[in-house]
């Protein structure tokens, strides 16, 4: 795919797998990144920033695998981030070379505060590095993106100089990062206008923006940039990313879709043009959001725009009255437009495989026969305990049953918990180890979850600290499925796990085991001898 610089639509550059993965605890393994990349391709993003190839062997493998398997001809551009150094650019080039449409994204800070305290370099040195490293990246690929990091806090005159140099050295996309989320929309508009006025040779270059959400202005700033001539936006699913995250893909795309007549004039086309402003298949948004939330363990807040559980819910009488009379009184978009079906049929314990499969297809899940069977038997188990199964329940089941399993990991075989106000909470748990030993231990704790976790810790002896534990009810009612999300910290890294069950203590056990398995997998990849010790010291 070649994107014309003068495009009159918005190029969606998705950085869920790079900046999104920088969210503490959102670490993904190669299989998980690949699953998200496939879904991003289905969603229709133009560019997938698959990772930072030089950061770790795991990230290199992820970028390479995504380049090979998702970066097919006519598919998305596959990109790797690289610092402005030869080693980083070489790693990026080696990883993206397998894609039909490879891109290297190189960056260097340009603000005085970064130059003085982080890079410890002069402006002249940074200019020289930008020139040399963009040209170096260009020696590997035609498609080179350049970012002057902390652009919004950079002296504009110096910023223009760096951009001129990057373009002259062969950059095909110039990305303007608001790295610390400091800009207001008006300032963003002025920043982009200034760049377009003062930097020459923009004719063959795509102008891009990358907005962080520190002040909650990421989406507003990205839209302000689009109103001023930017044609690529960098964003992430659910807005995840470093610190407070990035502009949310779903917010930008739906703003452009719902307010098309407002945005059309900025794109040199008739105000009433019906042509979409992005290539995104909006019906895939909800499914993509669920997948990213499940695999990263980053829950979507209920009131999150577009994809939050309450985004299409109406609680108060006056609103419900309006909706019943005429939907548009209180809804500016249809739930179906992001892939949430309106027509919710009720499934229960008497439902068969056909109805189950059909409902899942309506929800956007295309399962293999094996996954369908697994999900169906779990559905029957849960339906025995619940009167009605909602779409949310179905999604939780499918997420649980189809999540990518960590190979040769610890598996829970059986859990039994005793608790109450006149007994010590105790848990007995049977686990299959990576070496296929079946081990049973019992433990007491301050509560049932503590007892389960103490028991698991006796078997899986990987030092970690539980830094987050949360339970979310998937639907209302006493028989609701509960989803438990945990985050466990090992040294500097955080690993998340999620699981759902009608019994939240059981969900808690599976969620914790999921997080430990990811940690175990990470140790296997980065410290094989340490992980082997953990696998064999269980008793
Ligand atoms: C705004 C952003 O999101 S930028 C992307 C952030 N992403 C990441 O950092 C990915 C994960 N990072 C990592 O795995 C590691 O930091 C690595 C592999 C990239 C580098 O690791 P290390 O070599 O150990 O360096 P460390 O992280 O301690 O420090 C960063 C170094 O890069 C330098 N640096 C930072 N940005 C750049 C740049 N754009 N170009 C060149 N050098 C840079 C810093 O000055 C520092 O150099 P110094 O050690 O000479 O002072
Ligand atoms: C690498 C750049 C685009 C970035 O993530 C930032 O500046 O926030």
Structure description:
The chain has helices at residues 30-43, 57-69, 86-96, 112-119, 123-138, 156-168, 185-198, 218-226, 249-258, 260-263, 285-296, 317-325, 353-362, 369-385, 391-402, 448-459, 504-526, 528-536; strands spanning 11-14, 47-51, 77-83, 102-109, 144-149, 173-178, 206-211, 232-235, 411-418, 426-432, 438-444, 465-473, 482-490, 493-501. The chain has 539 residues and is an alpha/beta fold. β9 (411-418) and β10 form a beta hairpin. α1 (30-43) runs antiparallel to α11, α2 runs parallel beside α3 (86-96) and α17 (504-526) packs across α18. The radius of gyration is 25 Å and the shape is globular. Acetyl coenzyme *A (ACO) binds next to β4 and α4. Residues 411-539 are annotated as: Regulatory domain. It catalyses: 3-methyl-2-oxobutanoate + acetyl-CoA + H2O = (2S)-2-isopropylmalate + CoA + H(+); acetyl-CoA + 2-oxoglutarate + H2O = (2R)-homocitrate + CoA + H(+). This is 2-isopropylmalate synthase.
Summed over residues and divided by their number, the pLDDT gives a mean of: 90
Major β-sheet, in short? 8 strands, parallel, barrel
Strand order of the largest sheet: 1-2-3-4-5-6-7-8
Helix content: 40-55%
Radius of gyration, CA atoms, in whole angstroms: 25 Å
Identify low-pLDDT runs.
none
Which ions and ligands are bound to the chains?
acetyl coenzyme *A, 3-methyl-2-oxobutanoic acid
Strand content: 15-25%
Task: Label the overall shape.
Answer: globular
């Amino acid at each position: 795919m070649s994107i014309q610089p003068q495009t009159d639509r918005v190029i969606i550059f998705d950085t869920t797998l790079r900046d999104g993965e920088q969210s503490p605890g959102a670490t993904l393994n190669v299989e998980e990144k690949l699953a998200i990349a496939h879904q991003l391709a289905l969603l229709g993003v133009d560019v997938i920033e698959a990772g930072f190839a030089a950061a770790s062997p795991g990230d290199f493998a992820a970028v390479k695998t995504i380049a090979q398997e998702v970066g097919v001809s006519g598919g998305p551009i596959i990109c790797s981030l690289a610092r402005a150094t030869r080693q980083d650019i070489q790693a990026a080039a080696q990883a993206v070379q397998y894609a039909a449409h490879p891109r290297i994204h190189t960056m260097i800070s340009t603000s005085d505060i970064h130059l003085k305290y982080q890079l410890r370099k002069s402006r002249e040195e940074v200019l020289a590095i930008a020139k040399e490293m963009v040209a170096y990246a260009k020696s590997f690929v035609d498609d080179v993106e350049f970012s002057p990091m902390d652009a919004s806090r950079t002296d504009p005159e110096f910023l223009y100089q760096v951009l001129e140099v990057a373009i002259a050295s062969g950059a095909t996309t110039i990305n303007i990062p608001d790295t610390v989320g400091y800009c207001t929309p008006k300032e963003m508009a002025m920043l982009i206008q200034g760049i377009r006025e003062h930097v020459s040779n923009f004719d063959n270059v795509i102008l891009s923006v990358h907005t962080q959400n520190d002040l909650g202005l990421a989406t507003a700033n990205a839209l302000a940039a689009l109103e001023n001539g930017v044609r690529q936006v960098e964003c992430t699913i659910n807005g995840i990313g470093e610190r407070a995250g990035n502009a949310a893909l779903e917010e930008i795309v739906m703003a452009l879709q719902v307010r098309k007549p407002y945005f059309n004039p900025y794109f040199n086309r008739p105000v009433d043009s019906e042509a979409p402003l992005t290539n995104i298949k909006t019906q895939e948004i909800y499914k993509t959001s669920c997948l990213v939330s499940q695999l990263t363990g980053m829950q979507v807040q209920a009131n999150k725009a577009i994809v939050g559980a309450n985004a299409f819910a109406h609680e108060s009488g006056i609103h419900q009255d309006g909706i019943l009379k005429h939907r548009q009184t209180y809804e500016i978009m249809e739930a179906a437009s992001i892939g949430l079906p309106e027509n919710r049929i009720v499934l229960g314990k008497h439902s068969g495989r056909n109805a189950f499969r059909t409902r899942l297809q309506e929800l956007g899940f295309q399962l293999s026969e094996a996954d369908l069977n697994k999900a169906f038997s779990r559905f029957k188990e849960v339906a025995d305990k619940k009167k009605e199964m909602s779409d949310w329940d179905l999604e939780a089941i499918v997420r649980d049953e189809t999540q990518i399993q960590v190979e040769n990991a610890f598996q829970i075989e059986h859990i039994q918990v005793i608790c109450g106000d006149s007994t010590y909470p105790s848990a007995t748990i049977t686990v299959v180890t990576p070496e296929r030993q079946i081990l049973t231990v019992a433990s007491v704790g301050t509560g049932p979850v503590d007892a389960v976790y103490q028991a698991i810790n006796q078997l899986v002896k990987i030092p970690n600290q539980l830094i987050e534990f949360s339970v979310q009810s998937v639907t209302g009612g006493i028989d609701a499925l509960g989803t438990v999300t945990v985050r466990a910290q090992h040294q500097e890294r955080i690993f998340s796990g999620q699981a759902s069950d009608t019994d939240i203590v059981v969900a808690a056990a599976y969620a914790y085991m999921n997080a430990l398995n990811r940690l175990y997998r990470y140790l296997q990849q980065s410290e094989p001898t340490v992980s082997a010790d953990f696998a064999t010291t269980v008793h």
